[in-house]
Amino acid sequence: MSQLLSAAWRYRGFVGSSVANEFKTRLQRSRLGTAWVVLQPLAQVFIYATVLANVLAAKLQGVNNKYAYAAYLIAGTACWSLFAEIVQRCMTVFIDFASLLKKIQFPRITLPMIVIGTASVNNLALIVVALAILPFLGFIPTLNVLWLPLLMLLTIAFATGLGLFLGTLNVFMRDIGQIIPIVLQFWFWFTPIVYPVTIIPEHLKQFLVLNPVIPLVEGYQNVLVYGKAPPSGLIEVAVVSVVLLAASMLVFRRASSEMVDVL
Amino acid sequence: MTTPALTVQDVGKAYVKYRSEFQRVARWFGASIRPREEHWIIRGINFKVNAGESLGIIGQNGAGKSTLLKIITGTTRPTEGAVALAGHVSALLELGLGFNQELTGRENAVYSAGLRGFSREEIDKFVPQIEEFAEIGEYFDQPMRTYSSGMQMRVAFSVATVVRPEILIVDEALSVGDSYFVHKCFKRIREFREAGTTLLIVSHDASAIQTLCDRALLLDGGRIVLDGDPQEVLDYYNALIAEKENSKIRTARTTQGAVATESGTGEASIEALALLDDEGRSVEYVGVGQPITLRAKIRAHDPIKRLVFGYLIRDRLGQKIFGTNTHYTDHVFHGLSAGEDVEVLAHFPANLGPGSYSISVALTDAETHLIKNYQWRDLALVFTVTNVAHPTFVGSAWIPPRMEILRPGSNVSDRGID
Prior knowledge:
heterodimer, A: mainly alpha, 11 helices, B: alpha/beta, Rossmann fold, Coagulation Factor XIII, Chain A, domain 1, seven-stranded mixed β-sheet, six-stranded mixed β-sheet, 8 helices, 19 strands
C-alpha cells in the first residue's frame, strides 16, 4: 500500500499537468470552453426550476422565498454532479487508457487521480458560481459554508471508493459499465435533489438510511440554502467511504497485474 | 565478469480464461479456483543481456515478441519466472502514444515526460533539450493536429531519449519518419550504446538488426529457437518465412481472390518462381549490389509458337524500377509442345537502394502482353534490399560513385583511387 502511495506522490506533477491539459483541451475546442463546466449543471437547474417550480416549490418547509426551490436545486446538483462525474469516469478510465496501459509502465493509480482532480476543479467552479448567484436569490451564506470543503472531501471519498471498485471490475466484466449509468439515473431520482425529502411517504422513509448520498446532499442543502450545519448522518457516510476505499484499493491492487491481459 | 543488465529467467506468460469472471474476482480474495483454459503465449524464455550489449529480437507476428517486451517493460507481469533489470528502462514502443492532438508539442512533451516518471524540475530542464533535438521550429508551440506524422515522431523520439537509459527498447517505431531524422535517431542510439546502454531491438528490418546488434534471438511459437550471431539468426528466420510463404501461395491459387493479381489465357504458366543467391539458395533479404538470380520454371499446357518471359521490379510504392523481357534480350522459346517444361534464369546484380521491392512476371508471345497474354502475376515475389557493405546512400538505385576531392589551395591533392 505504501508503494502505491509513494508512486502516486512521485507522479503528482504528472497528475497535475494532466488535469491542466484536460481543461486546455476543452478551451481549445469550444469558444466558451471551461464555462460549459458550470453552464451545464446550471442549465439543468434552470430546467427543473421552470418545469417543477409550481409543483414542488410550496413543499419546501421553513423558507419563505420564491427562489427557494432554485437554490435548493443548485445545492443538490452541486453535490450530485461531483459524485456522478467521479463514479462515471472512474468506471471507464482504465478502458479509455487501454493503449497507454499496455505500452507504458506507469502507476495506474494516477488515472483515477486525474479523474478526481478534473472533477474537483469542475465542482469548485460550480460552487464558486453558486456562491456568487445565491446572494442574488436572497440566500446570504452563513459561516456554515465552511463545512463545504469537508462535504466535498466526503463526496469525493465515497464516489472514488465506489467508482474505483466498479471501474476495476468493469475491466473484466464490461456489463458493469452498461448497468451503472442506469443505476445512477435511478439513484438520482431516489435522492431528494429535485424534490424535498418531506414528500416521501412515511412507510418508505425507513429506507432512506440505505442511501449514503442523502446525508451528503442534505449537507450541501443545509449549508447553502438553510444556513445550518450538515446532518449527523455524515459520520456513517465517512465510515462507509473508508470501507469502500479500502475494498476498492484491495481489488485494484489484486487486479492491476491482470488488467493489461484483458484490455 | 560483467553484470547482466537484463536477466530473463524461465519467463512464461499465459492468458487464462475462467468459467466466469466472478471466479477471477473470487480468486483475488483467496478462493482457489482452477482456470478453465490456459493459453501460453511464451514459455521457458531464458536469456541474459550484458550491460552495453545490444540484442535483436526477431520473430514472425504472433511469435510472442510483444508479450516478451511487455513483460520486460513491466506493463504486464509474467505468469511464471522473473525479469531482473539493472537501471532505468526507456521503451520506444509505438511512438507518440498518449499524445493529445489539441495540445502543443511542448505540452505533449511535458505530459509524456511526466508519464515516464520525471519530476517537474527535471521536466523543466528537459523540455528545451527535447525542443532542440526534435528540430521542428515554431511547430513546437502549435497544436499537434497540425503536425505531420514525421513531426510527431520527432517529438516522441526526443522525449523518449532525453535521458540516456540503462536499457533502451526499440520496437518497429523507427521505420516512420524522414531519413534525416531516422539517421539522427540511429546516431543517438549508437551514442547511447557507446556510453553503455543496453539495447533491445525488435524489428522486421534486417538492416537495423545487422548494423546495431551484436546478438539476436529468434522467437517462434513462444520459445527461443535460436540465440546467436545476427546474420546466422536472420538467415534462419528467412528460411522460416520462405516456408510459410510457399504454403500461402498454394492456398492463394485455389481461391477466386487471386484473379485480381493473376490474369492470362493459361496456355502456359509459371510453376515456380524464386530469387536465388549465387549459391542457389532462395533469398528474401538481399544486400545492395549482391548478384542474384530470378528463376522461373514454366510449363506449356498447349503447343506454343513463341514464348516470351518478362519481369518487372517495383518499389514498395509500385513504381517501376526495372523491367525487361526475353523478346528484347533475344531469348525467345520457339515451338514448345504441350506439357513441356522450360526454365528462364535472369542473373543480375541487386543494384537497388535499401527497401522493399516486388517482382511482377508475365508470359506472352511478343514484347507486350497486349497481343497474347498467357499469364500475368503482380506481386509474384517480394524481397528486401538492405545495405550492409556499402557506404550509406539514399534512393532506389545503387550507382556506386568513384569519389575525388580536390583542394586547389594546397599543394597536395587528395585523389580517390579506382
